[in-house]
Input
Amino acid sequence: MAAHTPLPPNLRRGLAAFSGSLFINNKTRDSGAAHTYPPAPAALASLPLQMMLYFNACYFPAWCLAEGLMLQLKYHLLPWHYQFLLVTAFLILSLAEGSRLYLGYVGNLQEKVPELAGFLLLSFLIQLPLLLFLLTDGHVMRLPLETAMHSLLLAFLLAEIAAAFLALRTMTRQLAAQFHLRQFKERGGGWGRGDAAGSLQ
Output
């Protein structure tokens, strides 16, 4: 049952027409022959993920500089195999981080599932084990600054993995829904054409 309103009908129609012209998607029963617009597609990009990627990209040069200085200071005090391991880990982290951040930016902003999946795999399979090795191995002679820098980068990494997983799940569900809807429309169009051909025969 509609609620009673003290507004006169003419005033209600005028207000409805004004609001319909002000807000594009607004259409009520009182607005008369208003134009209808298709709803804009919902943005699937993750704002928390994009913010973390931005701050991570700003922080990463400082991490590279600090880690390079700390590695140079303790390099001659390490056994030869740890020298090799730390230099290799530093190079892999530095190279993979640039590719990882690029894939994250492209996959999130352009809503591309393969790039976002590649970002997630690089984060989980390369960056995370190397950072945990640098933070947990007792023979790498961690310096206090090194521990702080690695911990902050690890916090970024874990938060980005969680946000990327949620964004990827949302995107895949949306793409699956669009695929099923397109299949349904194509089947419906095919059935309609088949029925029309049968009626002509």
Residues 144-200 form the longest helix (57 residues). Helices lie at 9-22, 47-74, 80-109, 113-136, 144-200.
